Amino acid sequence: MTPARPNSSFAPGSVALVGAGPGDADLLTLRAIQRLQAAEVVLYDDLAGEDFMSFVAPEAELVAVGKRAGHPSPRQDEVSRLLVAYARSGKRVVRLKAGDPAVFARSDEELRAVRDAGIAVEIVPGITTATAAAAALGASLTKRGVARRVQLVTGHDVDGRLPDDLDIAALADPAATTCIYMGKATFPALVERLLAHGLAPSTPAAIVESLGSPETRVIQGTIVDIAAQLASDRPQGACMILYGMALAPR
Ligand SMILES: C[S@@+](CC[C@H](N)C(=O)[O-])C[C@H]1O[C@@H](n2cnc3c(N)ncnc32)[C@H](O)[C@@H]1O
């Protein structure tokens, strides 16, 4: 395998925010593998699958910083503090994040903390869940003349509720494909607002659950079907919810 970049760019005492993609180890980028191989410390999320650890040197330190069932996750400022502390001790530090580090991953806070400490940091992009979900559906998120815009949206606010300041007109745009992260609890409430704003109840929609794992499950229907499914029997795994006319079967 040809290295994507020389390892020398990952200097001792620096941090790499690495996107792990949706969970399948073979959807890691070459650069992500290279950073994992060179890492002396890896701070990782739950959603970044355990398979990735096979790329990490046996002597490297592994630090779980995700939300494990029944265990409180470290606060975001504690994660930032750890990144700075490990890098200051001269280690090559990988912060492994599910999907892409630039999408709903609180990377801005970690970047600020590390840069404020004068530590070099790079971002290694990963495949975000929205595009991995499109692949699982065998669908394109864009469609000429039908869906000219793709929007990535969070379905929950800091308190777990549907954000008050969502742009409902944009979310009800029939010419867009909408990909909702962290939205399984609030999607039924969102659909009520979309319907009130005029989005057709027949708009195609899908849930893709637990991508990159043997439990991957796809549920397809209309926005109304998907909202009813989530209201009555909410899946346990992480869910990407997508809707828009680009998802119509033909
Ligand atoms: C904190 S966000 C992280 C997003 C991530 N940075 C990305 O680019 O995909 C977590 C949300 O991403 C989605 N997600 C992450 N991993 C997933 C997976 N394996 N299967 C389905 N959805 C997933 C879910 O909507 C989940 O609530």
TrEMBL record:
Residues 15-226 form the Tetrapyrrole methylase domain. Pfam families: TP_methylase (PF00590). Transmembrane segments: none annotated. It comes from Rhodopseudomonas telluris. CDD domains: SUMT. Belongs to the precorrin methyltransferase family. GO terms for biological process: methylation. InterPro entries: 4pyrrol_Mease, 4pyrrol_Methylase_sf, 4pyrrole_Mease_sub1, 4pyrrole_Mease_sub2, CobA/CysG_C, Siro_Cobalamin_biosynth, Uropor_MeTrfase_CS. The lineage of its organism: Bacteria, Pseudomonadati, Pseudomonadota, Alphaproteobacteria, Hyphomicrobiales. Its EC number is 2.1.1.107. Gene3D superfamilies: Cobalt-precorrin-4 Transmethylase, Domain 1, Methyltransferase, Cobalt-precorrin-4 Transmethylase, Domain 2. This is uroporphyrinogen-III C-methyltransferase.
